Fold:
Amino acid sequence: MSWKHALVTGGNSGIGRAIALAFANEGIDVTICGRREDKLAEVAAESDLIHALAADVTDETSVAALYEKAESARGPFDIVVANAGIASSAPAHRTSLEEWNRIISVNLTGAFLTVRPALKGMADRKAGRIIFIASVAGLRGSAYVAPYVASKHGVVGLTRALAAELLMTGVTVNAICPAYVETEMLEQSIQRVMEKTGRSEEEARQGFREINPNHRLIKPEEVAATASWLISDAAINVTGQPIAISGGS
Ligand code: NDP
Structure:
């Protein structure tokens, strides 16, 4: 299938940037969004096929404006990657409702709002690819990150629900579930551990490395390679799957 236009939310950083560059390398126009315009411009400057539009995935109106601008310029999205996400950590009993809602609204509601406008058009055209960037936190529990784990389990559920709904349309819906990846999100987690435990940066980084089953941090490009496979013709029969990129189980 020769795809023409992809949306990658959170394409101005980390995993989203790597996926945008991988798709652009295949000749696909990629619209990236995020809230920080300077970071959007930096990534757009890396390829003529990457186009930046600021948008907040938690805001329905902002997502609608993004679709309107991007699709009127470059045609309907053939591929949507709901990648934007945030994390924080605290024991569940000290997690405020405000913090719970903040994480759920970006990671789960934001993922739903990101893909919803594409569903009908993809189904009518009988072609499309939807990819959620979930996490191994969508597959198993983990201490001190209750809203994050709940949001990512929700994303895996959403993947399965949409895959079932779109089964006969030729549109596939999958979730990529990485363990710790070397991005800004991991750097922020390292900072939190340093602040809370007094560990050095390298000690904190080593702690995260050792949580990954093979004691190796994942590179964003390794996640992007799976996204590239999911949009290939070879993956037409793969749908409704959470795919772990985790160095073991
Ligand atoms: P980064 O912090 O590098 O990137 C997060 C991206 O999300 C940024 O581009 C950010 O842009 C965007 N974003 C956050 N909130 C919003 C919002 N409200 N609207 C639009 N964009 C938003 O982290 P990663 O690349 O690591 O994270 C990408 C995804 O991968 C996330 O869903 C994360 O949960 C998941 N993941 C990450 C892992 C890791 O270890 N790094 C492991 C497993 C999964 P801006 O701030 O400009 O809005």
Summary: The chain is about 50% helix and 15% strand.
